[in-house]
Amino acid sequence: MSSTRIEQLIGNAQAAFDRRPADVEPGLDVEDAALLQLRKACRLLAGAEALHDAAYYTLVIEASFVAIERTVEFRLLERGTMEPDDLPGTHPGVYREAAAVGIFSEPAAEDLADLWRNHRAKTYYQDGLASAERAQAMYTLASEIHAFVIGRSSQGHECRCPEPNS
């Protein structure tokens, strides 16, 4: 592999993102910004479940945190609290905004931010090791938050997650 080849591949990737997508991921072909975040959360949870079975625990932890954030963003957009261009730009910012609008209590939002800061970052970037137990705990948390938020939404029927125990 040469630097010329890498530059060519970067250009190919950039061009792919510049073109209008043709073969869109199933379930994500929606016009509504809130539903897009909801469906992304559903896909992340489905992916996390499949990855757990394959013992890719680091990816399960990462996908679980992102699923929580997409679920919160769905609710912020659905309620009209935020516009798509105004969504929080940081991970802790999502949790703070969730508390500000009453999705989570302040202590729960602070605990989620601490969990992200202290354990997600360590698992992904530093010396923390992913394990089956940690991945399962994060997947369970993300699934429960998703169900909690969807249960309070008028658009809960748009969720594409499988029914529990199905």
UniProtKB/TrEMBL annotation:
It holds the Pfam family DUF8154. Keywords: Plasmid. InterPro entries: DUF8154. Residues 1-161 form the DUF8154 domain. This is DUF8154 domain-containing protein. It comes from Haloterrigena salifodinae.
